[in-house]
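Note to self: the last two entries modelled the partners one at a time, which told us nothing about the interface. This time every component goes in together.
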Amino acid sequence: MQTVWMRRMGLAAATVLAAAAPAAAQETIKIGVPTALTGTYADLGDQSRRAVVFAVEEANAAGGIDGRKVEVRFLDTEAKPDLARRQGEKLALEGYKLLIGAVASGEGLAMGPMLQRWDALYISTINKANQITGSACQPRMFRANRLDAADGAVVTPWLAGRKETKWAIMAADIAWGRDSGASFIKSAQANKRTIVSENYSPFGSNDFAPYIQKIKDSGAQGLWVALAGRDAINFATQAKQFGLFDTVFTAGVSFVTDNTVKTLGEVSRGIWGIINYSSTLDTPANKKFVADWAKKYPGAEPTNFEGETYIGMQVLLQAIARAKSSKPADVAKAMEGTTFDTILGKQLMRKEDHQLVGPNFFGYVGDKDGKLKPIITMSVPPETATPPADAACKMPG
Amino acid sequence: MVINILNGLVYGGLLYILAVGLVLIFGLRRVVNFAHGSLFMVGGYVAFTVAAYSSFWVALPVSIVVLALLGVILDRFVFRPLQHEDPISTVLVTFGLLLVLEDVVKTIWGKDFLSLAAPPLLSGTVSIVGETFPVYRLMVIVVAVLVAAGLSLWLRFSRIGLYVRASSVDPVTTGMQGVDTDRVSAAVVAIGAGLAGLSGTIAAPLMALSPSMGSFILIDSFIVVVVGGLGSFSGAFIAALLIGQVHNFGIVYIPWAASLIPFLLMVAVLIWRPTGLAGGRA
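The predicted structure of the combined assembly is written out below.
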């Protein structure tokens, strides 16, 4: 009896849906965010979430995209590739086919080959591994943030001006850390610097003392760190206690960021690093973004990851408006070879490898406006900062 | 070399203080406490807040006492009703407790990582065989040794220690001899939880406080408990020192396999002596 009743209800629901079909154009735009809400990269995932929420609310307050409201759903991936693939699929099956905001490169690499099967689309806003827009590039995968090779393009000229000749590497043993390490080795070789110690710690390490001792024993004068989130804080705290930063000149990527500096305080002072986005950048669009951000999150300035994720949202929402459709295939088409208005100026989404061509920056942690934060000392324009498309990228049909 | 051994002792010491709490609770209540990692985490957060208003030295005892009280409550309302249940239900309940405590911490302290500085008295370095070594890390070793010595004296020479040893061998027979095992258990769980508070507090200046920090260290402490032998106090001590050294020298000499070695060690011990290094009762 019950099944018959349920079937009738189903029929009734289908009829209602069919009747609503002409109004389908008014359907909401659904954005899915599979990201690290817990675990080692939870603070990065949280920044990603805040930026997406900000962009969605901003779009809805302005009447939506093409008159359609935007809605968003978050699922936790713990920054683990296998979990990201499951959560990405779940989101896509539930209609949230426009995916954005995963943290670890491994997550993007795990979702990439599945996107066409899911009829979904993914925009990286934090994943740095070169493969995303290189050997593992996909018709439905895009990147709005800077890749490791783009960081290398900033590191190489910077390294030329440093006097340290012997360098050590301390990176996370995941796709991004390995990639960043390899990228730094290239920059070092270009400058005739030697690498005396290479260390890759498991994702989510508690104790960095053995690595710190190895770096000290290696006689390194300089240290390149590619650790993020909890790993970055654990390493920095322990390295400071060992006095490592007093004797070894330290720089890194995603290591001393707006958010980790907040936690580390004085420990992070004087550490150099790549800055992919900074709220201090002086463009009218960025100033407006920073002011609006402070209204939504009182007392806060957008962090590097928040700025980068917001740029990804700008690209996505503008592509939807341009395509006049939120179907992933249409949005992907509207994205290729198109120039977007972002908070860092006009940026081109390259057709060949789906990489957004944007600027990159370098600087150190110091005092600005009475606050300790990463300060930009070197800016590299988009065309120089973003290396040409990787020949290894052959879009599968 | 000396520094590497010391580093192994620091991590081993930290694991010991955490793992021995697990052993105490398992010995008395036969409960594998998955929530132990979150007690460690809560201990760190309590210390952070107390230290913000006073100092590390006030935070240390306060965190131990708060966690011990939490332990008494857990024992009365969670472990005691669970002790005769199927082990799988205790695992599920304590795992659920872990999730609840993580969410409570997220609500109170937020999701951002927090960092507690080492007390000024211990924040310097000393020179050991020509290398600099943080004083704070030496303190961690000292605390671990004190805990080990204190626990073994207490277990060996006090009346309640006798009851604890008896109950962890056979709680039913011990009860029949007229020992109030529920009261003994309350005390022991309080001590176990207090030790989790202690380890959380001394770990706070070493690592970032985050709601999920408990799960990061729980796996390592379970390895210690299994290698040492479930319910064995001396086994936990030996195993913690061993895991600390293996962890440290693994990273120094065979980094590509370092994270695998503690697990291999555990598998080897389980094959060779399924009851653990010091376990022989099962």
